[in-house]
Amino acid sequence: MNKEVINSELKYKAVRSSGAGGQNVNKVSSKVVLTFNLENSNALNDEEKIRLKEKIASKLTQDFVLILTCDDDRSQLKNKEIVTKRFFKILTDGLKVPKVRRETKVPRAVKEKRLLAKKTTGAIKENRKKPKL
């Protein structure tokens, strides 16, 4: 994954925010929409593209375009920085290769401890019974 090439492939669009905010919302286009075409990206190899398609499938459109928006701040520049950070976090999380889990044996000490506990509880229950005459 080459961050510089990916950064050049990102498309930003400023849009007017919705919701409360008075005149500022009506006048200023502070909401930022980021789009990234996963299929046509030159920064990712085929293996990375396949992994991302599986991991972030719910966030992609049918054309494999990732669309992220941010209207957290009143500043367009800050919203652009926030949405870029979110994008790279999604990308790095999607590209993580999970560790292969190897099965391990149950240690002998653990088995012996369990058997000892069973014997002691059995002895306690045995002592509760009436004695046989």
TrEMBL record:
<dbReference type="InterPro" id="IPR000352">
    <property type="entry name" value="Pep_chain_release_fac_I"/>
</dbReference>
<keyword id="KW-0378">Hydrolase</keyword>
<dbReference type="GO" id="GO:0004045">
    <property type="term" value="F:peptidyl-tRNA hydrolase activity"/>
</dbReference>
<dbReference type="InterPro" id="IPR045853">
    <property type="entry name" value="Pep_chain_release_fac_I_sf"/>
</dbReference>
<comment type="similarity">
    <text>Belongs to the prokaryotic/mitochondrial release factor family.</text>
</comment>
<protein>
    <submittedName>
        <fullName>Aminoacyl-tRNA hydrolase</fullName>
        <ecNumber>3.1.1.29</ecNumber>
    </submittedName>
</protein>
<feature type="domain" description="Prokaryotic-type class I peptide chain release factors">
    <location>
        <begin position="16"/>
        <end position="32"/>
    </location>
</feature>
<dbReference type="Pfam" id="PF00472">
    <property type="entry name" value="RF-1"/>
</dbReference>
